[in-house]
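Backbone-to-sequence.
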């Protein structure tokens, strides 16, 4: 069995989850940060992180961390942490391809006594049913005899500078009681908030997937309430503020549910549920409702334009924000694209502006080239879609100056007072 003194860590996948983890471990023990994209490796070697999760100063503090896209550099590692994406495909089914590829790569360098820990979000059972057989086949080693495994779900919140990897309590687990204890000890090297040792890998997997499923269902409820209150011409935010005066009322707000977690993870759980013969009702209903909010927003906008006698077809609309959340460059699974696509269905031209987002990435992922500058008196409608600090600082007057004399200002994020906008979600 490995000891902490012999620990040599490899972090597979240096994105929003993997890099902060590699940096923290790199302050304590030898770490190789591995990513298949050489461009990412070169960027990190130059002391820069385009995701903005880790500052140049923090990168310098990881004195035991090196970066590589060469699998050979992982041969001396003995504790592998997998932090690759687990997306869904066009049919909203789990796509485990990145996880299988990562397992295949690790299998090529896996040795007796090594431990492989997965952090990627999966459905309960995926680690042992999908990943472990790949490791066994490629390495020709026997699970729980020659090598061992664990699962410790990531809880990274992109763009959040308050809740960081070290001060978020970490769930850990292992394939045997002894391995579970060792995995727990390893993470306690860096996790200041402490750990919770789950009773099994499946329990840890299930805990992760329901964290975001619970948020998704709660937001779906509030989104449905917003639709109802809009029909009744009642301000949703005013209702939520009033209800929020009760001590146990949960402070959820309506909105677009995007990103790599909340809008994706529930489909992993529903996939597994259906595979074992159960059709989930509430979870899928919540997903359908949340996935339809982009179209709902545009419907509300078009109705408001018609009431104000603004020509809809051929109109020009500015969408402020493209990232899936505020003060963050992450555009993975952003639901702003649903608004843009829906606008085009009405033959409305949509400009997107987001100072946080890399224009080339937006073009590559969604075929959108964000405008570089904001111009006044240009738009028939302005949609404040993401609550970036830059947009908050503009205020209602500057936001309205972007519109033509007759325009609609739609505040999706309650940035403005009710009287300052024409529409709120």
């Amino acid at each position: 069995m490995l000891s902490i003194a012999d620990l040599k860590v490899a972090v597979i996948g240096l994105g929003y989850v993997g890099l902060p983890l590699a940096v923290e471990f790199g302050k304590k023990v030898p770490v190789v940060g591995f990513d298949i994209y050489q461009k990412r490796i070169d960027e990190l070697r130059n002391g820069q992180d385009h995701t903005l999760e880790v500052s140049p100063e923090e990168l310098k503090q990881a004195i035991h961390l090196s970066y590589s896209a060469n699998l050979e550099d992982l041969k001396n590692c003995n504790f592998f942490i997998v932090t690759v994406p687990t997306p869904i495909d066009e049919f909203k089914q789990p796509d485990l391809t990145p996880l299988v590829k990562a397992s295949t790569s690790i299998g090529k360098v896996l040795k007796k006594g090594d431990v492989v820990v997965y952090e990627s979000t999966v459905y309960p059972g995926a680690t042992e049913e999908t990943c472990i057989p790949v490791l066994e086949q490629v390495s020709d080693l026997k699970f729980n005899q020659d090598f061992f495994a664990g699962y410790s779900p990531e809880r990274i919140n992109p763009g959040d500078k308050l809740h960081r990897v070290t001060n978020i309590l970490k769930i850990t687990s292992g394939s045997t009681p002894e391995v579970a204890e060792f995995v727990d000890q390893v993470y306690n090297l860096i996790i200041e908030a402490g750990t919770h040792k789950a009773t099994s890998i499946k329990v840890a997997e299930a805990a992760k997937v329901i964290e975001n499923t619970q948020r998704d269902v709660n937001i779906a409820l509030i989104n449905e309430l917003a639709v109802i209150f809009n029909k009744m011409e009642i301000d949703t935010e005013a209702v939520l503020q009033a209800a929020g005066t009760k001590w146990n009322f949960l402070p959820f707000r309506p909105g677009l549910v995007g990103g790599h977690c909340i809008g994706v993870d529930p489909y992993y759980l529903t996939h597994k549920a259906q595979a074992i013969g159960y059709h989930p009702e509430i979870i899928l209903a919540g997903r359908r409702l949340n996935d339809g909010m982009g179209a709902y927003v545009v419907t509300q906008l078009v109705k408001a334009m018609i009431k104000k006698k603004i020509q809809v077809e051929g109109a020009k609309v500015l969408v402020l924000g493209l990232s899936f959340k505020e003060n963050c460059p992450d555009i993975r699974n952003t639901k702003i694209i649903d608004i843009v696509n829906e606008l085009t269905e009405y033959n409305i031209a949509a400009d997107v502006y987001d100072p946080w987002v890399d224009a080339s990435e937006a073009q590559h992922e969604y075929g959108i080239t964000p405008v570089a500058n904001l111009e006044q008196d240009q738009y028939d409608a302005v949609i404040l879609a993401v609550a970036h600090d830059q947009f908050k600082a503009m205020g209602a007057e500057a936001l309205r100056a972007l519109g033509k004399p007759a325009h609609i200002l739609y505040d999706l994020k309650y940035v403005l007072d009710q009287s300052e906008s024409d529409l709120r979600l």
